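Colleagues,

Please find the record for the two-part complex below.
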Amino acid sequence: MASLHSSIKDNEFQFYGLVVLRVLIGWHFLYEGISKLINPYWSSAAYLLDSKWIFSGLAKAIVANPTLLTISDYVNMWGLTLVGLSLMLGLLSRYGSLVGMTFICLYYLFAPPLLGLEYGRPGEGSYLIVNKNLIEACALWVLYCFPTSHIIGLDRFLPNMEKN
Amino acid sequence: MSKKEKPSKNTNLERRDLIKGLATVPVAGVFLANLWRKMRRDAAKKANLLSNLVEEKSAPNIVKSLTNSRHLNIGIIGYGGRGGHLVRGAGFATKGWTDTVYKNSQKNKLDKQFATFMSQEDLNCSLIGVCDLFDNRAEQGLNASQNEVRPGESLKWVQLDIVITQKCWLMMLLMQ
């Protein structure tokens, strides 16, 4: 599970497809993180206040508590940035995939596009249950299952990375 | 020979390792370069947006004198034909308009426009704002607020310090 199957290693299309997928998702995460870091007015409050479904109570509790909201903001900003760097550069990218997947699953669960749930913020598309967050989380799961950073990435320089 | 080849093989392996290990680093460089360009572009756009939206006037917002607390500050949205007429009714006319009607009254004694304007009741108000789709109309409103042709009209003399321009108007419409 940790290392790539030899058939994928031998098939360059499959292997480089996985590398490109990792770098593109890393780019997306990195820009999401940095754009929040450089914007002094960014806060997760707006997203949390618009939360529906099972985590809406938790979201409102976070917004109501300034300390929790600050923690949430910093975790988002730095978490997304570090996951982005990890995936893009191929540094500990299996852990990066796992953390990124956790982030995206939380975003999905805080505001899932389920039937009957209406959101105040304008959506970027039309979704029914499946949205881009869910798809990106699945893509990260694939990257977790098929790591490539020990071949193309900084993990190549780390000892015993293939075993991790 | 084999001893000589060994370092060469190792060097190739290290070089290959290095290339593969650092293969995605240039992507990070492209990312940073584009991020820098975007930040500069956004900053320039923001600066231009503000400079186009609000025209800061150098004249300060001064009310020469106020007679009592019943003084009324007025603003007009749309200084076109109707807006100009309404504001004239409140005692504010552009310098161009007062000059023209004055000349007309000199040429034709029956033309009472200037006399009527000059004898209007003092409504104890100041024109302090103009919002218009066209900048030249807004400038006319500014001109009307500064015209001191009418005697005893010191109350109305308030300079506009901000003229809301066409782009600002469009933005307000978009926001609505």
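The interface with chain B takes residues 19, 23, 27, 30-31, 34, 38, 85, 88-90, 151-157 of chain A (CB under 8 Å).

Comments are welcome before we finalize the supplementary table.
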